[in-house]
């Protein structure tokens, strides 16, 4: 069954909820794979004899390939079909996961992780695009709430499942089940996706912008590679030169995309989307969110395992209150709060999460190395609730005015921005956390005190990122209402059928 984007009046496909289950499971697989490897790094290093450089690439290579390929993956969905690209992506992701689990050495594991990230870049942008084109506007808020809850759960459950699978040492496979667990999920997603996902693509014939792909990928590589390698290499001069040189590359990319739009209307990135206030503000919020999440989750893990000396399983279980806060608040946000209070719910979420961050920082300073898991429950619940209020309705707000034919491109931009923010956050960890640890006086302070001080410093950076996101949220619509909007082809604010209109 095929449904083009200009068929807004077509009856709703009753299989859409099964299709949603498939794409949300794929999102969970991706989110878990981003975080699950960190917990298993010591086991991987012992088993394969991987160097520190290889270990860095096992974790960072996935994110690098993922970030670089996202925009292209989203645009390919618009061109050749989102269902088709989703199936290609989840199939490739499953094969790459099997190869990761069967890797015989660190070199093979690094290369297969790069392949896994590239496959994820084909799969993930289609998730939001399929939702955007499958569900009517009146259902989309609820669906995006489920999507946001899945993101929060995936971020926290990844380390927990990684700890369990590594510690259980199933069939003597040590770390390998963290990758092999994707096989049954991937095969099921592929089979069910073929049956239940409805195909969609841009109604206007588009072509892949190969020059745009090359320029965009080069700019992202020049920016992200030094960030991921900088700490290990001692922040060499070439890294700063590369990051600075990425700016003129992006400038050339923007100029070329404008010319491409005027010439044949088939650019890699629809720059006209940034003229939509809600989309531009949402992209900024996504960047800030990626930064503070990148800082928090990495420093939190380092603090608990290296500072407090907890086992991976202990650290993973400690994160359960955060997951509970995210999932509970996400459901309340979309179903009850946002329809009544609009963007103030997201702003409240930023402030609530900042409050939880401050409370966590106070507890670390107050109890030091004697801090227990039960004492972390309250700040983690508060932080999780704040994040749930943000992530659940944010995607809907960002995509509310995006034309369906550009849904894949917009989805790729959203995910790329998050990955870019996360990479920036991981780069800032060397300043706000590792720098504090390295310069601490070990003759006067214990390990727990040193890491506690570094974690406290990182939490204040997280709070700063949340306040920036709060300010950017003034660019989102005050309130979203449902009504019919006529299609006006070619304009960034066009909508279909029952689309969301902004009331400011």
UniProtKB/TrEMBL annotation:
Gene3D superfamilies: MFS general substrate transporter like domains, Multidrug resistance protein D. CDD domains: MFS_MMR_MDR_like. Keywords: Antibiotic resistance, Cell membrane, Membrane, Transmembrane, Transmembrane helix, Transport. The chain crosses the membrane at residues 17-41, 53-73, 85-104, 110-131, 143-166, 178-198, 210-228, 234-254, 279-303, 315-338, 345-362, 374-399, 420-438, 458-476. Residues 19-481 form the Major facilitator superfamily (MFS) profile domain. It comes from the Bacteria. Pfam families: MFS_1 (PF07690). It is found in: Cell membrane. SUPFAM superfamilies: MFS general substrate transporter (SSF103473). Its main location: membrane. It is a multi-pass membrane protein. PANTHER family: ACTINORHODIN TRANSPORTER-RELATED (PTHR42718:SF39), MAJOR FACILITATOR SUPERFAMILY MULTIDRUG TRANSPORTER MFSC (PTHR42718). NCBIfam families: efflux_EmrB (TIGR00711). This is MFS transporter. It comes from Streptacidiphilus cavernicola.
């Amino acid at each position: 069954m095929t449904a083009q984007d200009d068929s807004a009046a077509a009856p709703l496909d009753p299989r859409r909820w099964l299709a949603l289950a498939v794409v949300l499971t794929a999102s969970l697989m991706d989110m878990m794979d981003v975080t699950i490897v960190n917990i298993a790094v010591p086991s991987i290093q012992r088993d394969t004899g991987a160097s520190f450089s290889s270990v860095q690439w096992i974790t960072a290579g996935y994110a690098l390939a993922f970030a670089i390929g996202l925009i292209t993956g989203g645009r390919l969905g618009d061109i050749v079909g989102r269902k088709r690209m989703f199936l290609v992506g989840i199939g490739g992701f499953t094969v790459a996961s099997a190869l990761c689990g069967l890797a015989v050495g660190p070199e093979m594991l690094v290369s297969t992780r790069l392949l896994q990230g590239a496959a994820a870049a084909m799969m993930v942008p289609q998730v939001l695009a399929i939702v955007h084109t499958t569900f009517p506007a009146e259902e989309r808020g609820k669906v995006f709430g489920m999507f946001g809850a899945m993101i929060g759960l995936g971020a926290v459950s990844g380390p927990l499942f990684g700890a369990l699978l590594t510690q259980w040492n199933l069939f003597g496979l040590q770390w390998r089940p963290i990758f092999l667990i994707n096989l049954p999920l991937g095969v099921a997603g592929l089979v069910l996706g073929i049956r239940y996902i409805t195909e969609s693509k841009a109604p206007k014939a588009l072509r892949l912008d190969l020059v745009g792909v090359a320029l965009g990928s080069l700019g992202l590589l020049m920016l992200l590679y030094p960030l991921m390698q900088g700490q290990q290499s001692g922040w060499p001069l070439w890294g700063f030169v590369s990051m600075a040189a990425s700016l003129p590359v992006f400038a050339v990319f923007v100029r070329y995309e404008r010319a491409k739009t005027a010439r044949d209307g088939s650019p890699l990135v629809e720059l006209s989307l940034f003229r939509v206030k809600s989309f531009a503000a949402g992209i900024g919020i996504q960047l800030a969110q990626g930064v503070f999440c990148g800082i928090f989750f990495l420093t939190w893990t380092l603090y608990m395992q290296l500072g407090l000396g907890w086992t991976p399983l202990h650290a993973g279980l400690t994160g359960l209150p955060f997951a509970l806060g995210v999932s509970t608040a996400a459901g309340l946000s979309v179903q009850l709060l946002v329809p009544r209070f609009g963007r103030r719910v997201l702003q409240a979420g930023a402030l609530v999460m900042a409050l939880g961050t401050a409370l966590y920082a106070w507890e670390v300073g107050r109890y030091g190395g004697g801090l227990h898991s039960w004492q972390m429950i309250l700040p983690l619940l508060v932080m999780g609730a704040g994040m749930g209020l943000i992530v659940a309705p944010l995607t809907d707000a960002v995509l509310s005015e995006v034309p369906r034919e550009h849904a894949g491109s917009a989805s790729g931009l959203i995910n790329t921005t998050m990955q870019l923010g996360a990479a920036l956050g991981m780069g800032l960890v060397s300043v706000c956390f590792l720098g504090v640890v390295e310069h601490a006086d070990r003759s006067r302070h214990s390990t727990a005190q040193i890491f506690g001080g570094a974690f406290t410093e990182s939490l204040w950076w997280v709070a700063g990122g949340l306040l920036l996101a709060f300010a950017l949220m003034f660019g989102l619509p005050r309130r979203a209402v449902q009504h019919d909007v006529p299609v006006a082809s070619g304009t960034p604010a066009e909508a279909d059928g029952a689309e969301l209109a902004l009331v400011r």
